[in-house]
Amino acid sequence: MERLINELFATSGAIETVTLIQLLIATLLSFGLTLIIGYIYRVTHQGPSYSQSTVQTMVIMGVVVSVIMLIIGSNIARAFSLVGALSIIRFRNAVKESRDVAFYFLTMAIGMASGTGFYGIAIVFTLIMASVIYAMYQFNFGAKPTGEVLLKIDIDRDLNYKEAFREVFYKHLESDSLLTIDTDDSNRFELVYSVKMRKKTSEQEFLKDLREVSKNINAQLIKNDNGFFI
Prior knowledge:
By secondary structure, the protein is α+β, with helices and mostly antiparallel strands. The protein is built from 9 helices and 5 strands; from the N terminus they run ααααααβααββαββ.
């Protein structure tokens, strides 16, 4: 029975044949390892552009590449045939983040190692890369520290904001720059500042002092998941 199954997965005239055991090991191993990478991607992803389909694509890509490597083996003719077949495929979805491209290549490498029989390399490589990615996430590697932040204030039109905020700004800020002034029909001003906060100042205390200038003041600091931005 086992011989019959193996013959079904063997190709006549092929330099190398693929057994059912090899197929199962390659696909299951690549599936399990790319699941780990997908989980690391989900945990370490920052920003609003996270997509579930991206994680699923990584897993599918890893498994498909492992099967492709099994089929190609050491047959050069198959490799050229594969290049010709893939050249007719057109991908129209732009990758949102350059980090996603690195993860795609990572899952492809895992699939290639699994499909060519380098199971130990695939496992060790996955564990090393997962640890490296998680460590960079924990230590916020590559982030550029900055004290600049956007300050948005909504005030009454009749408030002299230049004089009203002078003392609070001097107390909590190293520098400030008024970027925009906007108004609407509700007799309100919307001010947007680029400010640099003092090292020992507290965001909560700064906003509290601003709101104490007038009862009709709404103030907020704007930042993203990676820190302050301007």
